[in-house]
User: What shape does this take?
Amino acid sequence: MPKKIKAAALAKGVFKRVADPRHLYHAVKLHRGRKESKRVRDDAELALIGRILPGAFLHYGYFDDPSRQPEDISLNDIVRAQARYAQVLIAQMQDRSAPVLDVGCGMGGLLPVLKTNGFSPVALTPDRTQIQYVRNTYPDVPTLHLKFEELAAPDHAEHLGRYGTVVTSESLQYLNLDKSLPLIASLLKPGGRWVACDYFRTHAAQPTPGSNGQAAKPGRVEKSGHHWDDFHARLATGGWRVAHQADITPNVLPTLRCLYMWGSRFGLPVLQFAFGKLRRKQPAIHYLVEDALQELHAALADNLEVVNPDTFARNKKYALLVMERS
Assistant: This one.
């Protein structure tokens, strides 16, 4: 029999925390430190995804058949699409005599695929959770626990001109182009290649229409990723030549359709069901936390919009790029 929520016990627990200055002080510290800890929380969520999907990949995958509908896609299909994505990247790598630097390696899904194909990977990530997982799972792979830009420091001079390939797989969007473009150039050996696979903004952020007559809200989805035209302008200025370019947006959309379907058809409805049950079973508790529940629902709906395939295709381009020095 399910355990019932006791309003008196819940109220007592909340009052105990609020009335104790030690708890209040700790709450203030947590609130002030939320920005510093946000990345760790986000990456912990990515770590969870990496453990759910056997391949330990943290990207959208690549479907050879872009017409696949979400109702026909299984978890195994997504796993296979992620493995296919890795093969699409590796097909653009040539030099097996020098190491491959995997920038923003995530949970290390690309590392064993590189090794199987005769490459020698080096994994880089600034995240504590990810680096620990990679070191435990792939103990024979060299690792760098730092931000990519930190490789420009004099104490990392041994990396200059060392790599035959630098790969940024859905990590380019997090890099500062002013610092990263010249750094990538300095890390590559003569004739080396930079393989990038990521999404880019193709339009400026558009306002999201408001509801119930409210004013439109600032655009959110279009803010992530570098702007496509600006990125290419920086490449030209920095002395880069694009050796290969492919728009693979259609090939990643099946994954987005699947995620959006599960979120909109199951995730939000289940959440609404839970709120409704709480309102019926514990109306007093529901009344006290109603505003917080509405904020939670709005936040989840907003995050779901990030994987809306129609919005993504309208405002972004997912591209596979190979750059060489001019």
